[in-house]
């Protein structure tokens, strides 16, 4: 079991959680839209810079939770405010803080109505997202998990497209349905754990197998909907298509990762026997998502739908790596969570920039813009190459590690590599739909519409996209900087898993066909 490290310095995590929330208050009393934009950009930028203290102060040599804080919250119910992070969560916290200023920049002219309210939603959203990744009290986690739904529901429902009400309600109901069962599981664990919500104490407890199955299924429904895994994905395209650009970026870059984070933080250490027993079904569901996402994306003419369905495929690789239960697979999955956040977030920004000019997300409206928007299509090309894991880009490293982990898993257990071979068509399909989109946007055909009136992206838009491109090549060419952060925590998770079960990942191999 991980030992808490009580941090004696400044409360870095609490500052990161509550800074955006507290700084949303002045926006309630100042109706000036310019102030709202500038203030939110300042607050999110300060939070992003301050979060780097986590990176510089993080001890890569230990698996323990770091930067921990513990305060009594509701004493009568033994509910405490406990936060901390380890190598599994640190990159997700940094992804959240670093991406938020660019969501503000992406909304600078895109959001022209109720600007103040929109910026408040962004700040509240940031607080809730950070809280999800650092909470070590299960009820505190659940509060942040549910709090995140409200601002996203408003972002889609107020500032979304023509079918915004349908998309926002579907998003809310799907995620709420999973959350209700999650709450039931939390209460059961609270009782079993001596009336304590402290998450590390719930791990590796040896709960009854049948109880583990039920708790795992509650976890699975909540987290699979959030990922979203096939066949729980149907809320995602509607939410992405109708959401404003910043909403799509947050949804793709951060919210989807809460589901995969939940599998790693809760499912594996709290219900290891159920994980071993049900892993084969989840692995094949992941393969189904990879293939389904690829074929469906290939059929789309709406750019946002194309990228939304590509997320189903990409996140299928993430869940595949997690439930392979080896070092390469899980490290590749965590890295791929970050890669997907960077690349898909950037692609949604690119779609938003075209939409601001043409007021359409259809590929035919953007056909042949390469001649008139060379800077834009340069960025789009690199992000598209990353999306289908071109060597040298960030996604290549993540997918390669996941596939290598899958191959080694099959071979180690004397099995033909069905899983790895079944996942490879997903990579081919990704190249097909991304290259198809690129071809149409850059060159088009002989009947291109007149695009000469379009202006290339401006300085603000270049500043918005440039950091994403930096990370595409930084992770792609020097991934060890990122892998070092997670290596010890992942190794500790797997060693605990193997020690608890007595046979660890081998048991999964015995259950695979």
Task: Please give a handful of descriptors for the protein shown.
mainly alpha; 20 helices; two-stranded antiparallel sheet; single chain; 72% helix; 3% strand; disordered C terminus; 513 residues
Task: Describe the structure in your own words.
There is one protein chain. The chain has 513 residues and is mainly α. The chain is 72% helix and 3% strand. The protein has a two-stranded antiparallel sheet with strand order 1-2. A hairpin with a 4-residue loop joins strand 1 and strand 2. It is globular, with a radius of gyration of 22 Å. The C terminus is likely disordered.
Describe the structure in brief.
The chain is mostly helical and 513 residues long. It is built from 20 helices and two strands. The radius of gyration is 22 Å and the shape is globular.
Topology, element by element:
Elements: H1 12-23, H2 33-57, E1 66-74, E2 79-85, H3 90-106, H4 115-134, H5 138-147, H6 149-159, H7 164-192, H8 199-202, H9 209-226, H10 235-242, H11 245-270, H12 272-298, H13 303-324, H14 327-358, H15 374-387, H16 394-412, H17 418-442, H18 459-477, H19 480-501, H20 505-511
Antiparallel strand pairs: 1-2
Helix pairs in contact: 1-2, 1-4, 2-3, 2-4, 3-4, 3-11, 3-14, 3-18, 4-5, 4-6, 5-7, 6-7, 7-9, 7-10, 9-11, 9-12, 10-13, 11-13, 11-14, 12-13, 12-17, 12-20, 13-14, 13-16, 13-17, 14-15, 14-16, 14-18, 14-19, 15-17, 15-18, 16-17, 16-18
